[in-house]
Amino acid sequence: MQMTYDKFAITLHWLMALLIILMIIMGYQLDELSPEELANNLSWHSGTGVLLLILATIRLWWRYAHSPPPYPNSMSILKKRTAITVVHGFYFLMFLQPIVGLVQAMVYKSVEIRLFGVFGVGWLRELDKMWLDIFSMIHSIGAGALSLFVMFHLGAALKHRFIDRDEIMGRMSPFKRAHKSK
Questions:
Q1: Residues 131, 158: Cα–Cα separation, whole Å
Q2: Which CATH class, in words, describes the domain spanning 7-172?
Q3: Which residue pairs from 117-123 have beta carbons closer than 8 angstroms and sit at least 24 positions apart in sequence?
Q4: What is the pTM of this model?
Q5: Is the pLDDT assigned to residue 85 strictly greater than 80?
Q6: Under a CB-based contact definition with an 8 Å cutoff, are residues 10 and 172 in contact?
């Protein structure tokens, strides 16, 4: 039985983790930018969000096509259920955030948003400001939830590594491959 994720799943995990952390940092700094900086940063933020949506779709498809390795027997049922809930929460947020963010970009009126500076997305600009406020609120709450999930996930990974000293970290490690059991 495979005790680790395959290289493709590991690569997607770490690529998306890096992009999500960068997006969270970038997103929280958007309010402090000048209009010119805002247009450029929203362009990259929105484009990266679309890229993350594509990667999340690929990742979800890959997960259904390739069963994840089982959790270690040392984990209690409660810990396994918590881990599964966190995974589902991550997937929900990995889809919610870019979809709501893209709709928010389509409604945004202050600056023209072009994904990576190329593709314009102001298709819904004629909608009332109320819609921008609604999508902004949902996107902001989602960013906060995603930030909490990232911190919880990181804390749990470090707990498994340094306190529990179990093999959980080896399942997704790009550096050390856990052994396969027979």
A1: 40
A2: mainly alpha
A3: 117/40, 117/43, 117/44, 117/47, 119/47, 121/46
A4: 0.87
A5: yes
A6: yes
